[in-house]
Design brief:
Order of helices and strands: EHEEEEEEHHHEHHEEHEEEHEHEEHH
Distance between the termini: 22 Å
Oligomer: single chain
Shape: globular
Helix content: 25-40%
Strand content: 25-35%
Radius of gyration: 20 Å
Number of strands: 16
CATH class of the largest domain: Alpha Beta
CATH topology of the largest domain: D-amino Acid Aminotransferase, Chain A, domain 1
Number of domains: 3
CATH architecture of the largest domain: 2-Layer Sandwich
Strand order of the largest sheet: 14-13-12-15-16
Largest sheet: 5 strands, antiparallel
């Protein structure tokens, strides 16, 4: 059997979602079929160094007491010096050795400097196929302001929002507060370019705006303030299209918040109490069909490829789309694998499909 050489790339990275990226990589490493793939695990340290990692899924288990991390062991993985080669090399202790020719890259990065089009641009320049969205789709999906702008232009309903930069807030706080007043209450304040609910605050009055913005600005120099949406929180997975076909949407999963303010980082990744994931969600056939149609519309509007998770609220007035995540988590309790498993894809089959989609693009 011909082996595909898979580079599990940019797990780790420089963003605040470093540990979640590592945990996602651990899940994928544990599921890859070694009879089909030769695996080269490459981690990125918090300082941005590319290092050759161990092929050991247990090293990246999501432990609440000690989150996984890529540590600098002194090795350095080097990219090809032109698009005429796909050979990766590693330098260690002054000696350079070949890692072989790469067939496809699986960039499992969350957040800035990875999920935002930067690594995708590097791979495009190197001429190496990779899993997931390209430069434009990744950049749009990472920036909540531009995601909302594009989705609204495509005819999808989004929550009202205001975008604020750190400079605007520092220059005229009263003007920002005036822009926010019409959004009502409660509000969510979020970094514009971050994920995993990092830096997100729910506020119920204007008095909390300053602190919430400072929390968001700690992650990104741009924040969005959006109206809370009353409705069921439901997510759905989308897989990219084979040539001549359209993207496919999964069944849906519902997030039921029972004892927390919202679906925060601890609930998403550390299995904290107060949130239940119900999959498949209890929807009528018509509701699911409409959600699937809207999810595919959003996927195409953002120019996604490979995979995405689309997050919606089901309100009394129909579907409101919250965001499109172009590299959703693959941890054992993440929604994206769950909805596809409920749709008939096992975890290893889902990874195989993503790799095949990348190779077919």
């Amino acid at each position: 059997m011909t082996h595909k050489r898979v580079l599990v790339l940019l797990f780790g990275g420089r963003s605040s979602e470093h540990s979640i990226s590592c945990a996602t990589a651990g899940g994928v490493l544990g599921a890859l079929d070694r009879e089909r793939y030769d695996v080269i695990p490459v981690g990125i340290t918090r300082d941005g160094a590319f290092v050759l990692e161990r092929d050991d899924p247990s090293a990246f288990a999501l432990d609440p007491d000690e989150l996984p991390e890529v540590r600098d062991d002194g090795s350095r993985v080097r990219w090809p010096d032109s698009a005429l080669s796909r050979e990766l090399t590693v330098e260690r202790d002054g000696e350079v050795s070949s890692l072989g020719e790469v067939d496809v890259v699986f960039p499992i990065l969350h957040g800035l400097w990875g999920e935002d089009g930067t690594i995708q641009g590097l791979l495009e320049l190197a001429g190496i196929p990779y899993v997931g969205s390209g430069v434009l789709g990744s950049a749009l999906g990472m920036d909540k302001h531009f995601t909302k702008t594009v989705l609204q232009a495509a005819g999808l309903q989004v929550a009202p929002w205001v975008t604020v930069t750190h400079d605007q807030w520092e220059r005229d706080q009263d003007a920002v507060a005036g822009r926010v007043r019409d959004l009502g209450s409660p509000l969510f304040v979020k970094p514009a370019r971050a994920g995993s609910s990092v830096g997100v605050t729910k506020i119920t009055s204007a008095e909390g705006l300053g602190d919430a913005l400072e929390t968001a600005f700690a992650e990104d120099g741009k924040a969005i303030i959006e109206s809370a949406v009353a409705g069921r929180e439901i997510e759905i997975g989308v897989l990219g299209a084979r040539p001549g076909e359209r993207p496919r949407a999964s069944v849906a999963g519902e997030i039921v918040v029972t004892g927390r303010g919202f679906y925060d980082f601890d609930a998403k990744y550390l299995d904290a109490p107060g949130v239940d994931l119900v999959c498949p969600a209890d929807l009528t056939a018509d509701e699911l069909a409409e959600m699937q149609r809207l999810a595919v519309t959003a996927f195409e509007a953002i120019d996604c490829a490979g995979l995405a998770r689309a997050d919606f609220f089901l309100t009394d007035h129909g579907w409101v789309i919250n965001e499109v995540n172009t590299m959703p988590g693959f941890t054992p309790i993440s929604m994206f694998p769950k909805v596809w498993q409920a749709s008939g894809f096992s975890y290893p089959e889902l990874i195989d499909e993503l790799i095949e989609l990348a190779l077919a693009r």
